[in-house]
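Researcher: Last one for today. Full complex below.
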Amino acid sequence: MVMVIEVRLKHVKGAAESVEKSSYVIIEEEAQKGQMQSLFINKAPLHIEIGMGKGNFIIENAKKYPHINFIGIEKYDSVIIRAVQKLEEEKLDNLKLIRMDATNIDKIFEKEVDTIYLNFSDPWPKDRHAKRRLSSSTFLKRYDAIFSKEKKIVMKTDNRHLFEYSLMSFTDYGYQIKELSLDLYKDDYPDNIATEYEEKFHTLGYPIYRVSVNKK
Amino acid sequence: MVMVIEVRLKHVKGAAESVEKSSYVIIEEEAQKGQMQSLFINKAPLHIEIGMGKGNFIIENAKKYPHINFIGIEKYDSVIIRAVQKLEEEKLDNLKLIRMDATNIDKIFEKEVDTIYLNFSDPWPKDRHAKRRLSSSTFLKRYDAIFSKEKKIVMKTDNRHLFEYSLMSFTDYGYQIKELSLDLYKDDYPDNIATEYEEKFHTLGYPIYRVSVNKK
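Model: Here's the assembly. Have a good evening.
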């Protein structure tokens, strides 16, 4: 059975304005290239999530790991606004958000990222769209330019074909698999922080795949 | 649910003698080290299966691919005898069998193997037995010595933890993942040849994992 979930992007009135006004959101992000650390109170390892959606994963990470700086990236105002709303009553000085298309990731960061999270990314199921997948060599090349030293990518998805493709793409590009679960919720994984999608799909009984890869 | 399948090794009367008498079985295999090709009528790429069990996989491969030479390896007389019995009425000049423990694989072969098949290998679930897994670095080191040029390993299993471990072990050792299926019977895979175990576990509804890795 193939289940197709259509994600409707609702127009949220005033979203763009509210996003730009939030102190959590980095605007004129290209001007910060290579010096994102200056936006945070403490200098710390920088972890980014590309495609953070409504932000549950990165917000919970920021709360749990105060000694890591986090930046969440999301393309759509109507989605990122949900994260901004969640953050209204929080005081997190180790989290920032950027509204941007991941295609431009290497125009925003330069040799300053320690870990990239790819959670439930768009699978782009058609072969001719493979280059758009966030784990394609097209993107891995961009990531090369934004990593500080060791390269580390942590991916979760419920999409089997995207996961198979990603493992091949990572190892073909020289990454080694350091942690791997083909059924996350059957393994003992107390530190897992779920995304909104993950909660839904896990509850529906789908296996969640997770991998951590790195490259020297 | 964890299902434990106990494999009883029956004592098969006269198995050792019947195995030794078969023209398919290589005896004094150490004397052939580095010159296995001389046992076959045609010089051809050499593919071996370590732990062939009752032999369905390698026998069907030998029938389907006459231009490849195959050697099946199995430790137990009481198991290899089943393959010998199946072969009694066949005339396959591209298949040989060896009764031996895989631990000694590098005492038997030298720079002459093109592909290794590991099908439904013993998972050795306890951490302290990890070195006994056929995909551990202990074995990968032995395989280095027996491969002719490019190294290629094709693995199938229904054991999730063994598969996760193996993908990490392979990529940690420098192998790249070239083909991957996390649910073989849901993918379009017309050339698949099933082992006896695979038939049983697939029928019970378990996903079958398959990977092909190589290393320059």
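The interface with chain A takes residues 160, 163-164, 167-168, 171-172, 175-183, 209 of chain B (CB under 8 Å). The first strand of chain B starts at residue 46 and ends at 50.
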